[in-house]
Amino acid sequence: MVGYFTRLRVRRVYRWGRRQPTSFHRKLNTFYFDSLTISVDGQPGITTVNPGDYVLIEGDDDDYPFVAKILEFFNDETHNQKMAQVQWFIRWCELPHKNKKLLGRSPHPHEVFYYLGHSCDNEINAESILSTVQVQHIPASAPFPESPTRDTLYVKLSWDTKTFKELDPALMQDTLVPASPPPRPKPFPHCSPPTASLLSRAGRSLPTPDPMVMRRAGSAVPARVTMSAGKMGTNEAESVHSAAKLSASKTLSAKRRGRTAVTPGVRKKLQLSLSASPEKGMTGEEVLCELLDEEVESEKVLAIKLNSSPPRSLQHGYSLCNMSSGRKPPSLLGQVSLTPYSINLDRLSPSALGEQDSSRDMMLGVAPLLLEDEVFEAALPTDTGFANTPKKRQATPRRKYFTGQKATTPSRRKDSSVMREPALGVLAEEDAENSPMQPVAMTPRSKRKSAQLVASRIRKQLDLLDSTQDLSDEDDCYVPSKKQLQSSSEEEMEEEEAAECEETRVRKTRGRIIKAPATPARTPRKTPSKKATPSTPRTPRDAIPSIPSRTLPARQPGNILEEARARLHVSSVPESLPCREQEFQDIYNFVESKVMDGTGGCMYISGVPGTGKTATVHEVIRCLQHASDIDEIPTFRFIEINGMKMTDPHQAYVQILQKLTDQKATADHAAALLEKRFSNSAPRKETTVLLVDELDLLWTRKQNVMYNLFDWPTRRHARLVVLTIANTMDLPERIMINRVASRLGLTRMSFQPYSFKQLQQIITSRLNKVKAFEEDALQLVSRKVAALSGDARRCLDICRRATEICEHSASLPSSTGLVGMSHVMEALDEMFSSSYITAIRCASVQEQLFLRAILAEFRRLGLEEATFQQVFVQHQALCRVEGLQPISTSEGLAVCQRLGACRLLLLESSRLDVLQRVRLNVSQDDVLYALKVDRD
Amino acid sequence: MSKRKAKKTHMTVGACISQVQTILRERFCHQMLPEKPVGMESQYKHLLELLKRTAVHGESNSVLIVGPRGSGKTMLLKCVLRELLEVTEVKKNVLQVHLHGLLQTDDRIALKEITRQLNLENVVGDKVFGSFAENLAFLLEALKKGDRSNSRPVFFILDEFDLFAHHKNQTLLYNLLDVSQSAQAPIAVIGLTCRLDVLELLEKRVKSRFSHRQIQLLSSLSFGKYLDNVISQLGLPQDFPDTKFSEEWNDSIKRLCEDKAVMAVLQKQYNSSKDFRSLHMLLILTLSQVSVSNPSIKPADLLEASRVCGADSKANMLHGLSILELCLIIAMKHLNDIYDGEPFNFQMVYNEFKKFLQRKSHSIYNFDKPVIMKAFEHLQQLELIRSMEGSTANIQKDYQLMKLMLDHNQVMECLQKYPQCPTDVKQWAMSAFG
Amino acid sequence: MPGQIQHPGYEEEKLLRVSKLLPCRDVQAGRLLALMGEPEQYSYPSIFIYGHRATGKSHVLHTLLNELELPYATVSCVECLSLGLLFQKIILSLFGSDCVPLLPRSPSLSDFVRVYKQLCVQSTAKQTKYIVLDRADLLRDMEANILPAFLRLQELVEDNVTVVLLSEIVWEKFRPNTGCFEPLLLHFPDYSKDELQQIMCEDSHPSYTSELYSAFINILLGVFYSVCRDLRELRHLAALNFFKFIEPLEKDEVKESDIHRLWRNIEPHLKKAMQTVYLREVSSVQWEQQQMAEKEAGALRGLSAHAHVELPYYSKFLLIAAYLASYNPARTDKRFFVKHHGKIKKNNFLKKHEKTSNHLLGPKPFPLDRLLAVFYSVVDSRVAPTASVFSQISSLVTLQLLSQLGHDDQLDAPKYKCAVSLDFIQAISRTVSFDIVKYLYDFL
């Protein structure tokens, strides 16, 4: 089964089912139609879509087009746009990454959810409809039918952006058209005529869809299967799509306002152009609000003009030429203008588009945009696609400047991030007016949603590559790192490029790839070499910290127990942290909100060791990183320092500075630099998230380190989020002086020790499906640990040890392969039983005698303490009783000090030999017990 | 020339003896590892597999080997490593870092040592560049860069583990254990300590990162086993050049261990401590008596050796005191008896001594005070008496409060042994209150 | 009887020479040698030798190591005020001076071990190296890790090295709190009287018969043996007094055979020597000069008997007053010092028997005003409480005849103790003709 051809590859022709509109809405002057026919050229037959049908709507991902149910068809007031009112269905893969946990089970590959959210409006451009599809409603309890065909999707639950709910079948019945479609903006004058003419001209040079594309689309399908097999791969992919869809819908609605943005590509260009402004030294925010204002005004204007707008007659074939403008680029790409293309590719290399978009995106976004850049006055047809709005016009010069800029700026990330912010502004505005009723809390999310067009395209590409990767080498199914993606994406592109321009581009891209990881801001961890090289002026220049790599490969776990052991090792990072969802959410929201509105803040996280504090924070950061990769949120940089991993509190400054900007400095100097950095504002500064682990180690007498850490976030321009972790809940009260504690603020969170249920869940989730333990064995471990410390590490260690013991006893005939009670018990008392009693039992005769002498002497004195002299008298007596020949004082002392050496006794310094006081380090009862057992 | 003749007469014997000496000495000085550690098979297995997993599977681990002094912790570890390194797969991969709590007394030194032994890039010759902080950062970076499957596993062997726990903030331990619990270069942290309470020394965050594996070497071996071990310790190996001699020798050893007196001595030794180190001390003393003239171990030698080992050192010292000093000791003993164990000062002792002189002293005539004071000070130098006050600031030295660090019966025994001790002194000592 | 030391590892001649050099220490030397074994053989990692001063511990060891040409380093811990010094000495004498710079500045133990190891690798000598640490008891005062580390140095440096610790303090007082590698204990017993005689006779004066000398030694020991068995001390005394002993012979007053007269001649000198030279209250030079000038033999007296500390008149009284104040209970002052107390029945003052007199327990502190009160009552003429009095008090403190308790900051009520002995104060009071004993509570 091949992927859905979007109109990028095949041209679809959209016509209203009947020429005459079924109804006419006077106030809005829109005509309503009863059906839409789609004819795909190259394919016989015509699809007719009626309201109530379920359709696939073109999104950014051909493999997962959006699903919706048509409610009604109409055309907008300009009558040259086919619109449709839809009820969205959301795919699993479109859900925000962090919400996926909320669905208890693993989703069915063809499952969709009835979308109740408001964050994406439900009017779409009818021309984005691809084809129809079956959607079956299944009661939540019922199982999914086997052998799903690709054309039928199943809906069980509804999703309202917060929770999954049981979907009542009523909704699924064909519903009536909602009474009043939402108001639509007033058209600007002066748009069509030039467009039309130009477009018609464009129409002539239409290419036939090039065969390679077809093939690749075909290949994509098996690819997807393997991809969904790979864990991480899919995760990333999915949340991308979700964003993509919502934003796409935005796009569509935005089109009507922008009046010109017929294709996403153009739409994107709009964003680019807008975003160009910060390059002119304005900060993101400023642009943002400025834009917001202007949007508001325009809205007002529109609202007024609404009813006074006269009806218009719709024009046929417009859509055709309109689309042709969309289809223009491939031709250019294909045969016409390779040279300008390749040129501007490397001119543009750092740009968000040039890099990772597939040819399709090229056609849509890049190519036109570039063409406009390069050969501006050589009026290529596509040019017109953008040439209609004043906004656009004013945009173009900007963008030219902008791209020029980009060519010089090394890292694409930075500008792309900047580039997006303004766009946010626009869309946020739209959003607000689309759904005034929605909670404010949602706005940031939706902002983000709509901000993603670019990266989502990128991502979609990555996924394909990702999958092809999987095809190429099955064995390693981890998500390929950025480099690989880029490089391979290049390859993909090369496939589609004409042969001659390949190698040039390869070189370019390679060059860029080398640069790619060189941005420390992204992930300091990934690029340690950067951090280490400037380790010290005196170190040899080429000092790169590394453990030599092994000559022979590490052996992979062989049997099931080894497998289990590997999974149970604390180091094996689980894909998700069970039992910490709440904490996760809180921290996530905290950091996210701070990052979103570019403010700063502190958070204090406490909890006994082994309750997953650091792990959770890292998880959060991972999600956020990834969210920012797909532009849900502005990029931020994450820095981690650990009080234990520095030699002195003031090293904190040095480390932070080094991780922020690769410069080395003395503690004082670093402190000064950071002070400066955080106190005065810099353009295009991104938020810094600083994780301070083992906070209490940063304590100094004057507490200036802590003070600064908590003071910087409060600065206006700092944009610093500080997450601090420590063991003790009341650390602020105990060790911090007021001015420090007050700055820390009240955002606190304490991780409770795991309950035994949670521990059990943790183990099982780690083991997932590796059947190595008996249930009750797990129970025992988790109960025991929960009772003692609630330390997950302990729990895992015990389990690991148990597997080993099990392995040893595997030789026994009685043993089942599984780890049973007995093994766990053994492991438990290996780890928890105090060794004192065994030690006493294994002690030599004289040592035991001495212990007894001590007991006797204590009883005599009624104290817990005696001098050696006193005890030794008793000892001699006991010797006689036992019929042993009494030992000399020296030997006696030797015995005593041996016991002292292994801390069964507590002794004073040996200098006052016979006068030194002796105390027991074990309870007298233990000693008695041990000795008594020893006796018989 | 007489020597050369001597050599000729019992050439073989002399050679053999020196051979024996060489072999057994190496054994007793813990230079030669036994083929198999006795009485700790299970621990051996446990440790071996643990380390093997680190070496082969790259699974990080941490373990403590706990046992009293001389219970063979190091020996166990060495044996395990020896066997482990016979596997080429391990040999090629594993890096070892040996740290000793006595040598690396703080993290700064320890880090330099680690870097040196790992031979990281910031080592040139045997100089380690960079400050403490830089070294730490560097090492952590290096470890972090590694990963389970690709980088060579590292054994960190911390002898006298408890001493590392006294380093500032336990930084080193925290970081090592942290690495061993996170997905970085695979390492195994092996700690050796004699303190049973070592875990209490660890800070709780450090403790949490330590996988609470303890291998305990608490040998509960019977006297029979002990005897066998003695025999095997003294026995000569198969590959001894002169088989005839070695057989004779081994037989003599067997016979020796059946001897009653020897049994008694060994039993005493066994009673006082089971560890082999103290046994080795006994045996090397015995062995040292073996010579050409005395080509096999006689029970007498063993008895002599144990006498030397078991002698009461204080008694030995008392034996060497001058009569005056002895009298002072007796005076102090009396003071102790009178004011049971209360500290005394020189004046009191002097007084006691005077009283004794006035009453009946034919043997000892009067010394004037400074002379006695000198004797008193000598006793203090020998740490037979000890001043109670910490600071002897503005106190006249004859009023400083002192305590006698001898036992009542130690004094008495020494009087018995004391050469030509005057009878009146003896009587004085015997007499109840001075 | 010498030459009984035997060992296959070494040539007989050497051994003979050794045993000649070690009179009366054959047993110890023999055992030590046996322990050391042949040069290449391992010896026990650490040996702890204890015994009284001058019982030949280091002497035996050094002669053995020297004569048998074994590689060794010997360091007296008294000389090593810093660890660096200690390490340098060891490296220096084991590996030669050119290796010393390998040690970094202020080396740590780990540096030392590292350097030692790498030097061992270079040098292929298989012989057992010996490190002799004299006055090992001082190791306890160095860093805690030093002593245990030296005890197991063999293991740490993985070299055939044996550390020998010498001390006159028993091993029990060395053991660190967490235990350590137990060294092999060896005791060097003291010389018996005969052995002392024998050894001391060896350095007899060439111009006189050894019989005479041994007779002299006999007399000397007769006087000193009961006090001191330190060989070195005795030899010193012998050397000092021999000429006094043979004076009569020089003057041909007595026959050499007439030991008795010689004895009567020398004996008082020896007694005096015990009070002076033996106590180091007189330097041996002074002593010899004084021997030369026969007549006023009584003139020279040890510091112990010195009453002739010249003090101002009032200072003397102040000192007396201080002494009284610190040795008499305050309640008895009235009885002693109130001038016109009518008639007081003696029996009131019969002191109730106390267990220990103040002269055993030492001086009690007293406040300044009490001192002054006693002072005014003991000094016969009237004295105005002028600044001079107070200044004299403070000068007495600086002379350490008085000692001030507490800190200097409590200016208002300072407390003092008298820090002089009874003999001293008696001497003082004699000079001012004040019978102190009458005023002392202990002597009623």
UniProtKB/TrEMBL annotation, chain A:
One of its GO terms (molecular function) is ATP binding. Residues 489-501 have a biased composition (Acidic residues). The keyword Phosphoprotein applies. Keywords: ATP-binding, DNA replication, DNA-binding, Magnesium, Metal-binding, Nucleotide-binding, Nucleus, Phosphoprotein. CDD domains: Cdc6_C (cd08768). Residues 193-221, 386-453, 471-554 are annotated as: Disordered. It holds the Pfam family WHD_Cdc6. Residues 47-170 form the BAH domain. It is found in: Nucleus. GO terms for biological process: DNA replication. Residues 390-401 have a biased composition (Basic residues). InterPro entries: AAA+_ATPase, AAA_lid_10, ATPase_AAA_core, BAH_dom, BAH_sf, Cdc6_C, ORC1/CDC6, P-loop_NTPase. GO terms for cellular component: nucleus. Component of the origin recognition complex (ORC) that binds origins of replication. DNA-binding is ATP-dependent, however specific DNA sequences that define origins of replication have not been identified so far. ORC is required to assemble the pre-replication complex necessary to initiate DNA replication. Belongs to the ORC1 family. ORC is composed of six subunits. Component of ORC, a complex composed of at least 6 subunits: ORC1, ORC2, ORC3, ORC4, ORC5 and ORC6. ORC is regulated in a cell-cycle dependent manner. It is sequentially assembled at the exit from anaphase of mitosis and disassembled as cells enter S phase. Interacts with CDC6 and KAT7/HBO1. Interacts with LRWD1 predominantly during the G1 phase and with less affinity during mitosis, when phosphorylated. This is Origin recognition complex subunit 1. It comes from Umbra pygmaea.
TrEMBL record, chain B:
GO terms for biological process: DNA replication. GO terms for molecular function: ATP binding; DNA binding. Transmembrane segments: none annotated. SMART domains: AAA. It is found in: Nucleus. Pfam families: AAA_16, ORC4_C. Residues 59-220 form the AAA+ ATPase domain. Keywords: ATP-binding, DNA replication, DNA-binding, Nucleotide-binding, Nucleus. InterPro entries: AAA+_ATPase (IPR003593), AAA_16 (IPR041664), ORC4 (IPR016527), ORC4_C (IPR032705), P-loop_NTPase (IPR027417). One of its GO terms (cellular component) is nucleus. Component of ORC, a complex composed of at least 6 subunits: ORC1, ORC2, ORC3, ORC4, ORC5 and ORC6. ORC is regulated in a cell-cycle dependent manner. It is sequentially assembled at the exit from anaphase of mitosis and disassembled as cells enter S phase. Interacts with DBF4. Interacts with POLQ. Belongs to the ORC4 family. This is Origin recognition complex subunit 4. The lineage of its organism: Eukaryota, Metazoa, Chordata, Craniata, Vertebrata.
From TrEMBL, chain C:
GO terms for molecular function: ATP binding. Residues 213-280 form the ORC5 lid domain. The keyword Nucleotide-binding applies. Its main location: nucleus. GO terms for cellular component: nucleus. It holds the Pfam family ORC5_C. It is found in: Nucleus. GO terms for biological process: DNA replication. Belongs to the ORC5 family. Component of the origin recognition complex (ORC) that binds origins of replication. DNA-binding is ATP-dependent. The specific DNA sequences that define origins of replication have not been identified yet. ORC is required to assemble the pre-replication complex necessary to initiate DNA replication. PANTHER family: ORIGIN RECOGNITION COMPLEX SUBUNIT 5. Component of ORC, a complex composed of at least 6 subunits: ORC1, ORC2, ORC3, ORC4, ORC5 and ORC6. ORC is regulated in a cell-cycle dependent manner. It is sequentially assembled at the exit from anaphase of mitosis and disassembled as cells enter S phase. This is Origin recognition complex subunit 5. The lineage of its organism: Eukaryota, Metazoa, Chordata, Craniata, Vertebrata.
